[in-house]
Task: structure prediction
Amino acid sequence: MPARDRFVTSWHDVLVQKVPRPGRSALALLLVLVVGVSAGAAATAYQRPAESRAAVQGFLDQVSGAEAGVTHEENTLVDAAAAPSSATEPSDTAPGAAPSASRTAPERAARRAPEPSPVPDPGSGLLDDAEVPRKASGKLRTVPGRERAPGDGEVLRVRVAVERGLPVDQGIFADAVMATLNDPRGWSSVDGVTFARTDSDDYDFRVVLAGPTTTDELCHPLDTGGTLSCGVIGTAVLNFRRWVDGSDAWESDARYRQYLVNHEVGHVIGHPHDECAGKGKRATVMLQQTLSTQGCRPQPWPAPGKG
Result:
């Protein structure tokens, strides 16, 4: 039976006051005072301050992407929340003018200094110090990109989606999913299938990375409790909590993530749960290995002896 049939985003105002020019009477009086006082002197000076100018320039680029509900993500290629802004700051003072007392040059420099971009983990796509939000946006975004199936056999087309707002590099996440699925130790060796990636509406199933609340909604009526993942008809839902935290039953988070992909996709293409064959024995990929391995040794692959 073909595998696909088994899918379960000032101006400074300067007030210049002119000092009135002294009249002739005042000049005469001043001359008398200068002559009459031997040791005194008086002088008056005024200067017109230069007019202050400031330039305000810049523009803001915003690219908006369509949004979708949690149960149907759009084939959206641009995330508006991630669109870079090219706006420039207005000048605080005119050229050559002293900075105002309320904002010094170091303060302006610190304000304008760009913050460093988070660095994604090359294996998982997780950004530095990624935290798990209980509730994210509730909207899914299809990760752009297509990839041919690398092997022989029945081609299953996979669309990868990520809930908006999660601290993960979506492209790296999608690459990790496809590398796991097309590993020689994967389902191709068991079911004779090979996996192609698509960002179109023509797909066989989806792999979705979602926050705990959205995972619960996508997996319903299964009870994932904000903690577990699931494989349901047409969708493998990976709980972001598990992608970040891994499992206490595993020493390696990277290997656990491989298990998570293979296990949930296994459900989508028709594989039920397994039991542990005995204490100390190697677990099969369809054994539930998130909360416990039931005494078996954790193992992430459908065909661990291949490759």
Remarks:
- Residues 1-8+58-86+103-132+140-307 form one domain.
- The first helix runs from residue 24 to 36.
- The beta strands are 140-142, 154-163, 193-197, 205-210, 230-232, 235-239.
- The longest strand covers residues 154-163.
